Amino acid sequence: IVTIVFDTLDTYYTNRVLAGAVAAAHDHGVILDVRAFSSRRESASQSWVRRLVAEGHLALILVTMELSSSQVRAVRTLQLPVITIDPAQETPDGLLEISSANWNGGMAATQHLLALGHERIAFIAGPERSLPARERLLGFRSAMMDAGLEVDPALVLGDSYTYANGLRSGLKLLDLEPERRPTAVVCACDVSAIGVYEAARERGLSIPGDISVVGYDDTFLAECAAPPLTTIHQALETMGARAVEAALDLADESTGSRRTIGSVKIPTRLVERSSTAPPRG
């Protein structure tokens, strides 16, 4: 049995990662134990980690979660293989991290807008505690720096992977004086980008005529949006499958083969649709 733990099962992201993990578990003939912790206090306990080992589970996969210091000590003592997918923290030594190339994705999204002629580009961020969110923001900043452009602090805001974050941040950006208002925005997720769509609608502005928008994830929302959303594609199912394969690899340590350790970055790519265009004027 391999255990995979989420902080929620209610998002497109988690459903796609889980789909990849389930397929890989089926292919390798292993049982996948799926759990979700809504409580930070419950998820941070080491008792459930110890129960996994007592019950003979082969490995633990954590999705967008972090290990408490006591849990890190426990998995090391118990020699339980742990794989983290898009961790919320820097991965402790000895654990495997699987994630998208988030810095590259943030960079590619911004470079796309720069190539169209945009200079005043905003960024709507995810949660600060999220390592992937921080990497996407760093990619944005790196692209702006490479282009010789300063980032206006007023154009970087937001704090979650939610529609409300996109709507709230989008309204703040669009309510800036015309000379400070951005002509384009990069969002840390597609859901927030849809919030920006609503903000533009409420302010009587068009996408991409008045403001270009780029998302991140390439969820079904990106295809269904009006106009269809330019976004960064993440191979979410591949991440789930790789995690299961790595779990089995690490659990087979008795063979003396520890082939998978450290950090695995899954490539991202820009999917250009209709929400971006050169700035007016």
UniProtKB/TrEMBL annotation:
This protein's record includes keyword rRNA processing: no
GO molecular-function terms, A-Z: DNA-binding transcription factor activity; transcription cis-regulatory region binding
Positions of transmembrane segments: none
Domain Transcriptional regulator LacI/GalR-like sensor residue range list: 110-276
One Pfam entry name: Peripla_BP_3
Protein keywords: DNA-binding, Transcription, Transcription regulation
Signal peptide bounds: none
Presence of the UniProt keyword Transport in the record: no
Superkingdom of source: Bacteria
PANTHER family: LACI-RELATED TRANSCRIPTIONAL REPRESSOR (PTHR30146), LACTOSE OPERON REPRESSOR (PTHR30146:SF153)
Protein name: LacI family transcriptional regulator
Lineage: Bacteria, Bacillati, Actinomycetota, Actinomycetes, Actinomycetales
